[in-house]
Amino acid sequence: MGVSINKDGVLSGQVALITGASRGIGAAIAYRYAQEGAKVVVTARTLEDGDNVLSGGINSVAQTINDAGGEAMAVRADLSLDDHRVNLIKQAEEAYGSVDILVNNGAVTFFIPVKDFPQKRYNLMMEVQVYAAFHLSQMVLPGMIERQSGRILNVSSHAAIHPAKDAGGRGGTVYGMCKAALERFTTGLASEVYEDNIGVNVISPGLVATPGAVYHNLITEESKDRVTPVEHMAEACLHLVTGTARDNTGAITYADDVMREQNLEAAELLAN
Prior knowledge:
By secondary structure, this protein is an alpha/beta fold. It has a single domain (15-261), classed as Rossmann fold (3-Layer(aba) Sandwich). Helices cover 40% and strands 14% of the residues. It contains 8 helices and 7 strands. Helix 1 (24-35) links the parallel strand 1 and strand 2 (39-44). Helix 1 (24-35) packs parallel to helix 2.
């Protein structure tokens, strides 16, 4: 039996917006949420497969969901631009109504040692990975507070963990800074909106063989045995936006830990 859309699933009637959803983890989350009945808005800079050095595009992700009987729309947005972020929320709300679930997965990453890191690239990484998540959250929060319901999920990385002093590195200091800031934003916001019944969590995927990970040569002979299936990340991200918000908020967690602690089994996705 093939993978199908359950319109009466645990996310039935909810609107989910996922950034960085043209491929990899973002696309997997979009498929998993759609399979549980959510109306999904997928966004990234890449519209069509072939528009980027990496494979994938938001139009094909949305089409895959719609072809399976779900509801999805693609909105191109450059998260580094204020007017693109504002337009993204506007289009999502005009199409489906207020956003119930926001997943901040979009990122732009450069691996360069601190002594050589250009200010322009530093500013871009902070804008996309930190401020965009902050700004998008600001825009969806009023509706969530009014409804006394909502979920925000931020995607981090093990790079946020402080490295050993003799660990060396691949120029990932700025990347780690961005993700550490995102994690502190998550716990702070979770505390602020706890009484409003809004759950805010942050999750790191571990090493997933996404097009981006392959492009940055993160999958090596030494690391290949530690690769986490993208289906596990998608399943863990589903868990973190379900249940009772006040019982499922403020977490800084990891996909493998969620799968193990909750005894979850990863569902097959619409597309891999």
